[in-house]
Design goal:
Structural class of chain B: mainly beta
Number of strands of chain A: 11
Largest interface: A-B, 25 and 26 residues
Structural class of chain A: mainly beta
Largest sheet of chain B: 6 strands, mixed
Largest sheet of chain A: 7 strands, mixed
Distance between the termini of chain A: 36 Å
Distance between the termini of chain B: 41 Å
Shape of chain A: globular
Order of helices and strands of chain A: EEEEEEEEEEE
Helix content of chain A: under 10%
Radius of gyration of chain B: 13 Å
Oligomer: heterodimer
Number of helices of chain A: 0
Order of helices and strands of chain B: EEEEEEEEEEE
Strand content of chain A: over 45%
Number of helices of chain B: 0
């Protein structure tokens, strides 16, 4: 049972280049998220998908696009990378319960934009 | 403005002692609050959830309290071990689709 799998683990981009971070979950969850984590700032939500076919902006969506390809897969695209997008990116899948949601994170993707 | 503050960036304690981490928030009214553990180079892992109507919750050596009047949660690790060394994140629900995270406290337990 892999949980949440994201690729690539590490990537270096030049300013202006584009790339897509891939994410897949095998827990049959409806909701999936993309976060970025920066030193001293905690995790910030970029985009989320509450169900297959829907996507919504989170706290910091500018410069990103997402695609919910199917129930398993949720990708994050940087169309024109900027140095400010240097960060660690986490994909997450959410188990929704009556008492609250539990977040399952992937292992992270370290992105450097030079 | 809305804030989630974790008491300190780093906390060092001796093995066997109780570690206490603090999470304070302003301008939120969360229905529940969560604690996660994050090891270097890894994603956060869920530890505990406590609802607004619960004062305290325990799981093995972990204890969480939630005071909605003080707008504070305390996270305790009793009989701490070097293996407990990690960064601990608190998170609370902003809406049903958005959990907001604190910046974390890096705990080091020295043998």
């Amino acid at each position: 049972n892999a949980g949440v799998t994201q690729t690539p683990k590490f990537q270096v981009l030049k300013t202006g280049q584009s790339m897509t971070l891939q994410c897949a979950q095998d827990m049959n969850h409806n909701s999936m998220y993309w976060y970025r984590q920066d030193p001293g700032m905690g995790l910030r939500l970029i985009y989320y998908s509450a169900s297959e076919g829907t996507t919504d902006k989170g706290e910091v969506p500018n410069g990103y696009n997402v695609s919910r390809l199917n129930k398993r897969e949720f990708s994050l695209r940087l169309e024109s990378a900027a140095p400010s997008q240097t960060s660690v990116y986490f994909c997450a899948s959410i188990a929704q319960g009556a008492g609250g949601n539990t977040i399952y994170f992937g292992e992270g993707s370290w992105l450097t934009v030079v | 403005s809305q804030k989630i503050e974790q008491n300190s960036e780093a906390l060092n304690i001796q093995e066997g002692k109780t570690a206490t981490l603090t999470c304070n928030y302003t301008n939120y009214s969360p229905a529940y609050l969560q604690w996660y553990r994050q090891d270097p180079g890894r994603g956060p892992v869920f530890l505990l959830l406590i609802r607004e109507n619960e004062k305290e919750k325990r799981k093995e050596r972990l204890k969480v309290t939630f005071d909605t009047t003080l707008k504070q949660s305390l996270f305790h690790i009793t009989a701490s071990q070097p293996a407990d060394s990690a960064t601990y994140l608190c998170a609370l629900d902003e809406t049903n689709n958005d959990m907001r995270f604190g910046a974390g406290t890096r705990l080091t337990v020295k043998p």
